[in-house]
Queue: 4 jobs
Job 1
Amino acid sequence: MKVLVVGGGGREHAIAMALSRNSDVELYAVMAQANPGIARLCKGFLVEKETLVTAVSRFARANAVDYAIIGPEAPLEAGVVDVLEEAGIPCVGPTRAAARLETDKAFCREMMERHGIAGCPRYRVFYRAEDAIMFLEEYPGDLAIKPVGLTGGKGVRIMGEHLDRKGAADYIRGLGSGVVLEERLIGEEFTLQAFTDGSHLVPMPLVQDHKRAYEGDEGPNTGGMGSYSLPDHTLPFVTEEDRQKAQNIMQSAVSAMDAAGTPYRGILYGQFMNTREGPMVIEFNARFGDPEAMNVLSLLETDLLRIMERIVEGNLPALPVRFSRKATVCKYIVPEGYPDSPVPDQPVTLGAYEPAILYYANVRESGGVLYTGSSRTMAFVGVGDTLEEAERIAESAASGVTGRVRHRRDIGTSALLQRRVAHMRELR
Ligand code: AMP
Ligand code: GLY
């Protein structure tokens, strides 16, 4: 079976590695820059912007691929699934219309409201900055400020955290786009990813990501510095009732998209804030999380190709999907100065990293030497019977890397976990 992976980051390397565990899979990739890990697993690849959907489709047809799976959101927004499916290539990933769940934050909230889906914070959408600012000035509490469109995970600002009221008004004025203003939620965040065939949902283990650049959750937001998951596939500050509610919310979103005539197939990612009252939706993403894909795909025991086939057929319940009951810790190596002023094009050297799993991301190989880009470089995943073991494996691999790079040492440590548990206890 020939499978095309669209995308060239750490998440897509994890997808490619999971697919290549099936020796019948012949892999192809389209990526903006040759990811050395993906390139090694592929029979053929094209280095091209992933949003150039006609080039992606031409490459897919030329290689007669049987299926495609889309990693990042940008090609989904550009309609890569619509174009590939028109060419007769079934995809794991939503059409452009269904991907609006992620690519248009106003659409997402309005859909939740229209269908009475639980977990939707109070929100307002504005397309004129003056109106948004007037609302902001009269609003009694803190707000989350979200540009309507895609911002690479870096466009959201939270009053009381990143900005005061005056700063918030200035930020909105500078946006020059539609904006969603919503109540600031207080709690602990978690990620629930699920496979969906358009009507059924198969949940994956819960993961917690770390958005802030520096240890102790300080500094600017990033694409995600690392993440962990536990052997029981839940998190200590999320009860089974919370987890079930989150899953029900995602199921309702899938049903609503189907009812609206824009069925959603692929991976659905729910970012939740677990509040005093239970899980609230921060956002939906139309794809695996990066880094969270690396946690769950390192645990996936079921053949990913079989899952893709069931998704495309609309018959997910026919296949039991299993994840091994182990802990994972993922740590991203990033260039010095990331995300605000990264120093790119620096050589990096790996230490002896095994038994950690290495996923390459924004890194270039030239003459046998690895060079950083300006985004996240590579990630290490430790898998272990306990969180401590998984953390030790990931940390030892990450600290063996030399060059002008850094990583967060605190991800997956029990000190950080205890802080989150204590915060939740305080709230409830
Ligand atoms: P997003 O780009 O939507 O993932 O948002 C980035 C980060 O902003 C999230 O991971 C949260 O930490 C935070 N955030 C987004 N919406 C809210 C909200 N309504 N209340 C509090 N924090 C939020
Ligand atoms: N880790 C957050 C994201 O993939 O959007």
Job 2
Amino acid sequence: MADRKTKYVFITGGVVSSLGKGIASASLGLLLKKRGLSVNILKLDPYLNVDPGTMNPFQHGEVYVLDDGSETDLDLGHYERFVNQSMCSDNNVTSGQIYQAIITRERRGDYLGATVQVIPHVTEEIKKSIKKLATLNGHVDVIISEIGGTVGDIESLPFMEAIRQMGLENDDHDTVFIHLTLVPYIEAAGELKTKPTQHSVKSLREIGIQPQILLCRTAKTLEESIRKKIGLFCSVPSRNVIEAIDASTIYEVPLLFEQHEFSDLVLEKLDIQAPKPDMTEWEDLVSVIKGPSRRIKIAICGKYVFLKDAYKSIIEAFTHAGAENDARVDLVWVSSEDIKHGGAAKFIGDVDGLLIPGGFGERGVEGKIESIRYIRENKIPFLGICLGMHCATIEYARNVCGLEDAHSYEFYRDLKHPVIHLMADQENITELGGTMRLGAYPAIIEKDSFAYKAYGETEVSERHRHRYEFNNEYREMLTKDGLKLVGMSPDSKLVEIIEAPDHPWYVAVQFHPELKSRPTRAHPLFRDFVAAAVKYNKQKSEENEIKAKNPVG
Ligand code: GLN
């Protein structure tokens, strides 16, 4: 297949945002890969930030960090998870990056004499970044480009124009335009409505793009008559109008698409012959996700618990780990600000595990520390991630080592016991964008640890995003009182993993394991954390049964 030309799929969205363009792109990537093709996926984000690293979770949800340290859109997480391929900074391109490159060149004098304009300069730069993926890691059969935003947005126009030109510049069989739209169901009328889709495609055609395949997000089955109507008004054959019905798990989406021969239609347009995909592994995964043998409860105690997109990869990692343990993980979202001293039992008294995620800022930190105290003392499984590890260190220092005012230098500068402090190489940094310790770094793991049991290896590579670290001046004091430092950077300077003694499963890590979990290969730490929670849940039920049989008095 290596002598083949690279073909381009463009996915745009219409009507409303959040229809699942990222999942649709990732699903197509998976289907094509399962058909033996090499694929790569690119997210084009029209905003002017260079990357989402400086945006808060309200604006952007999770910031997804890649091995190479780039801070990217959370859709990259879907791409990596579905296509099972590691992405790099070239897989996420923003308007900010495009303009930054052009303005740098303009200042250098590269355009001397010319007026620098959206067409051709911005559009050429966009096309260059799409085509770059074709040769990045050897030959790629199909590049899928997802255009962020919704058709009609002013800021996405240069991207639309760039992909329109790519359609024009390539042979008809080299590109396919797919438009994801909404077909709403109006309860009072008992009808699915096609007008928003018609208008959305009309807007697309006004800027010169005629989609060849429509993915119609819907809550109800799209009958042939509706598909015919949409096809007629949008100039698309009705078999190219594909139902994208709401699914109970995102991992079912590619299977549902395939029922409507989605990848066949794409390959037909691109004139590629490839065998049907073998989806057995995914069918098995979906069947466990939908019908597991047991259920457990894990609390996530954080600051943005009402904003699930902020914890996207953690949620997915629990789905993967749940599937491997044949268990449904019911997540209990607890706002850390609600937990006051001595009051954790009310919120997490009946859970089988606690996860403290990463985060920034002091709000809610005391509640996190208090909830860690509760699960440490009550021997409930625990996983702490990044800020979660900082909180675990503070909790141990205060409640086990007696360092009453132990805290993190991130929140207070004038501390008697800064058990977490600023990394030395962060001290003189003043710019906030892209300056944390970011991306993949190795960690060396001690054999006598939960972490080693999980990984089965003494050297691992994990992704990071932080400025603060375990203060080495407190190593001796904390380990003397039992805390175990079981994971270190290879030069032993940075603590990467801590564990508590006399506990069924207590692991806190400086990195973000959730970013490397994959659907059919759950992250080892999440897998073992869920396994420990399942065990805890079983023991608890057995104890309750015994109590019920032998009531006191
Ligand atoms: N705010 C902390 C730091 O910068 C933790 C970051 C995180 O949890 N990702 O080190």
Job 3
Amino acid sequence: MDLKEQARQLTDELLRAQKAYYVDGRSIISDLEYDRLFDELVRIESEHPELKDENSPTSRVGSDLTSDFPEVSHTIPVLSLDKAYSSQEVVAWMEKTARSAGRDLSFVEEEKIDGISIVLYYENGIFVRALTRGNGYVGNDVSSNVKTVKTVPLVLTEPVTIAVRGEIYLAKKDFEALRESSPEVANPRNMAAGTVRRQKSSEAAAVPLTIFVYEGFWADESKRPDNHLAILASLKRLGFRINPHLAVFSSSKEQSEKLLEKAGLEAEPLAFGDLASYLERVTERRASLEYEIDGMVTKVNELDVREALGYTEHHPRWAIAYKFESPQAVTKVKAVTVQVGRTGRITPVAELEPVQLGGSVVRRATLHNQEYIDSLELALGDTVSVVKRGDVIPAVDQVLEKNEEGNTTFVIPRTCPCCSSPLVQKGAHLYCVNRDCPDQVKGMLAFFTARDQMDMESIGPKAIEKLYDMKLVRDIPDLYTCDYDVLKGEKGYGEKMIASFKAAVEESKKRPFSTVLASIGLPDVGAKSAQILIRGGFSDIDRLLKASDENDIAAFTSIPQIGEQTAAGIIAALQDDAMRERIAGLRAAGLQFEQKAQEELPDQIFAGQVWAVTGSFEHFNPRSLALKELEKRGARTVSSITGKTTHLLAGTGGGSKRETAASLGVRIVSEAEFMAMLGQEEHGQEKKDAQQLSFGF
Ligand code: IVH
């Protein structure tokens, strides 16, 4: 057998095995045999690159070449769905649709997968490209990453030319597992979106994304089935992964059964009258699904009716999405501004048309970084949904409607908005590396004086701006040496205010070493890691300085929770002259640079537990205080409840988390119970003292 034939046979066998395993969930060959065939094909392909097919099963592992996702036009309209927020609305829509069609209809009910919309294009049964939705007409070519998704077939079982719409998503359990290394990613959808746009497909291959497909568009219309159920059955036969949670609604259960039988598909046969109870049932099972859904989609089954109904500018008239939650805040992006943080990190911020959300008016929302903007494909003028995650800053969650002005995805300018220095890319973020950048310096000072840090409350961002502008302060030690009396006579700075500044400065000298350490601007050193370092033996600054002078990475990494990257970051920062000067200045000012006995971390009573928090609290306001208490005692905290969550701390109010927790058997803990766990009793001064101690202030 010649090599070419051998490669072809290996390819066939591997493709069959991949399809069986990933799409149908069964093994037809052993893992060992699979690896053997795979390695053999890799060997042939590397020795004879001319034999390597673009869609070889070996392309699943991705590549280290970077990709810039060129824009490509869709050949089908990629629209989104109109929405309903109650089952009554869905029933009314079905009735209206049947009326305008002028005949009896059947409908298919699918889950609305909360993932990334993708269109897969095949020519003569061969994968040619995968495009993101983009603005509906033009999307980004993300083929190299999508090819790493094992459930996306690269070769179909028939040589058809077809466009297929589907949703790429990440299962909840896979998200939780990956989250340990990317804690900033809020939900599985965002992680899937980020992965689909990874520059290196080898990195995308490391994330176990999967797909459900739900629409097919045949180039040769004569091949196209005449109803949606048959389309799904055909897609399945072609090798695609179809969501088995399906229901069919028609005038009677028997009629629905007949439709299913004809299409050769399994689904729940139901009558129109069952719709409300079906949606209720789905809502209940939602928490126990392995993936996230954000609603249900009702679609007209008959394709000729679909065609007759047609489309509005934005939506098909033959389908509607039933969304589970009441609408999130929906608003328009007026502009995107760019901020420089205390570490020089650049954060793009969406300036919004003001909108009410969770009891406050939101005008701005974080966009994190360019990668996040790209994954949303967000442009000026787009209509977006905005959410609040925990108690923190609101974030733009999704683009709901593209702008009509033709604006394309926003790109962060490459120079610092404050000092115009060229920006530098580090990991996912851009940085301004000019240490004298005024916004950076002000940010560093404001961080130092913040309530959660040195708690010099009267010297807030506004006062810092003033002190900076008057050239009184350029680095942290200046806060301890500057002559605040110079402010006398300045508008808004009376004697009382000046006295409060001086008092705050004096008071701050009492803050324990752990707080000082977490406030002076060492990278990755927050309250928790400062405690960890101290517990791990760095009980005074000299020990830290010595270890960094000696480049002694092991002195840090021998502490269990300190990784190599954090260690290297701390060492580099402590070797820096400016940091040395800062530390010397603060020492001279009389700040605490060694640990006193009572600052120890409390017992790790929550070690190994995973806690979510909902509602508001009497003793923990803002709610982040409760998270701190949990984390300090060894708990891992999460923002959404999954099978791994062990406890839900539930205050008053709060949303659906309580039901989700109940349905998953997660232990629900009240505030009173939690207080008892912490061993805290009384209110008043006693409690305040206790908190100050345990918060490390
Ligand atoms: S049908 C022309 N079915 O929801 C109709 N969409 O706002 C195409 N989605 O962009 C959409 N699950 O990304 C359809 N079973 C499903 C879906 C689904 C998730 C997404 C899709 C679409 C968005 C609609």
Job 4
Amino acid sequence: MSTRRKFLHSAALGSFGTLLTKRLAAATPQVAVTGRPVVISTWDTGLAANKGAWEVLSRNGTALDAVEAGVRITESEINCCVGLGANPDRDGHVTLDASIMDHQWNCGSVAFLERIKHPISVARRVMEKTPHVMLVGEGAQQFAIAEGFPLEPAGLSEDAKKAYKEWLKKSEYKPVINIENTKSGKEGHGPHNDLGASGPWAPQRLPNGDWNHDTIGMVAMDAAGNLSGSCTTSGMGFKMRGRLGDSPIIGAGLFVDNEVGAVTATGQGEDVIRICGSHSVVEYMRQGLSPENACKAAVEKIARIKKEKAKEIQVAFIAINKKGEVGAYALQKGFSYAIKNNSEEKMVEVKSFLP
Ligand code: GLY
């Protein structure tokens, strides 16, 4: 297990380990969770993020405040899949993307943002303090600094440095699937290492033994019944400089329609973008599909488009509808998401299109 992986493992599990491992082991069937407030988020990093969101929701706070507070926790993790400690692009720079959307069609996002610890909060400022929806690159950084966000030192986390050094040995431009799973499978829900896929986008281990992974997406309904969502990412490790995925694109990585539901996506952003994934899932729910079936419909569409190449990528969606029902669906097995409401706090293993 790499140092990075060990850190992630112990940070994620810690003294909570035994309990969490039991939860993960038990988290096989998908369940209908209803009632509000409720928060769901992608991958096992979502457990800690949900706790942060819950501190807001349980005090009758807004879903918007909750989804910002929740993913900030993940952004703060030093050697995590999200934020400044994540793997860099192929030129050695960490570039971050994030988006946020509230219950009134207000939305904001930042992309290609460097040296700012909390892109999700900058995205919220874009939403609240500018006439725009999206700021990118240097302009986004300038705006963040003007808003009082500290400019963090340039450089990589220790584990990202190691991973990058390894990558540089071959410097192959082989974008790796956005696995986003920090686990090897030993913990019960990371089976990507036996996918058997091939090709340039195939899931594969990074040279340091870690998996490429990146995003946390979170959607929540507050006690008042309002929906909001957030999504934050370092994007694909060793990506081309300037590459953006779905996460900062409203309608792709995140969409909230307070009349219908809220959705966020994870996985290979390019394929989420090409179907306006999160928006599509909302529209499927508007047509009457359950959150799970709506996510499934979007995944099936991507699978149809990709044809035989579908096995080379991962995409997944998580969704909440206006009744507070939640659901998710993935292209590949191995995707899980975290749920928290008044009665439950758990990981849910998600059904997949491919076996
Ligand atoms: N889903 C995150 C990305 O593709 O960047």
